[in-house]
Design a protein that fits this description.
The protein is globular. The strands form 2 sheets. It has a 7-stranded mixed beta sheet with strand order 5-4-3-6-7-9-8. A two-stranded antiparallel ribbon has the order 1-2. The chain has one domain: Rossmann fold (3-Layer(aba) Sandwich), CATH 3.40.50.150. By secondary structure, the chain is an alpha/beta fold. Bound molecules: S-adenosylmethionine. The site of S-adenosylmethionine has 22 residues, from α4 and α5.
């Protein structure tokens, strides 16, 4: 757990360096974002290095946006279910699950900054999420019906560990849905396509403004 003084400073950084903005593909959800007016990723990198050199939480990633859209449009996937939003970042997918009627939503991430920003984003949207700041990969997972993961296949070791864990969970009967724009390390096999969306993204983090992005269900094998 982060000490209260540091958490206060992080919240202040969120308030001064980002702004609440609707998520492009999911405008019914608002999160604190690095916008054109607050170019957090580049302009404040020196300042951020003291806090969090990679503010993943400041952007709604393509995978998270597609998954959040899908959950809101198909609430039967989450209604009454216990949902883990793995690699929650801003909390976007977990917020969508809560709004779509999940019985319980837990966000998990390894970035300490999430402790500041996820409750802020949940509050903006009138929901609350429990947060687990730990690396759950490879560990047994009890008490969840559905795992959702937005944009986690962007880096090789992380993608491989995540996929192995997802498949193990699927073999145990847990539904695992991933939102993904076809990254380099996205698994090409053993995934069922449920839907795809054209997702507007920030040129601060991507090379093109619109990315086709899939909602994939992880198959057990
Ligand atoms: C590209 S961001 C996606 C964030 C969010 N799901 C979305 O789609 O907007 C990837 C996230 O994975 C998190 N992450 C990296 N390694 C992780 C791990 N072992 N367990 C949980 N989260 C992890 C990062 O901290 C970051 O928040």
């Amino acid at each position: 757990m982060t000490d209260p003084g540091t958490l206060t400073a992080w919240r202040e950084l969120v308030r001064t360096r980002t702004a609440p903005a609707p998520v492009p593909l999911v405008p019914e959800i608002t999160t604190w974002q690095a916008t054109d007016l607050t170019p957090l990723w580049h302009a404040t990198s020196a300042e951020l290095a003291r806090y969090d050199a990679s503010p993943f939480w400041a952007f709604p990633w393509a995978g998270g946006q597609a998954l959040a859209r899908h959950l809101l449009d198909h609430p039967e996937l989450v209604r009454g279910r216990r949902v883990l939003d793995f690699a929650t970042g801003s909390g976007l997918v977990g917020i969508a699950a809560a709004k779509a009627g999940a019985a319980e939503v837990v966000g998990a991430d390894v970035a300490p900054f999430c402790e500041a920003v996820v409750p802020m984003n949940a509050g903006l949207n009138g929901v609350s999420l429990e947060l687990r700041l730990e690396d759950l990969l490879g560990r047994p997972l009890a008490g969840f019906d559905l795992v959702v993961a937005g944009d986690v296949f962007y880096e090789q070791p992380f993608a491989a560990r995540a996929l192995a864990w997802f498949r193990a969970l699927a073999r145990q009967g847990v539904r695992v849905l991933a939102g993904d724009p076809g990254r380099l390390y996205t698994p090409r096999e053993g995934m069922a396509d449920l839907a795809s969306y054209e997702v507007p993204v920030s040129l601060e983090i991507e090379e093109r403004p619109i990315m086709r992005t899939w909602v994939l269900e992880v198959q057990p094998a």
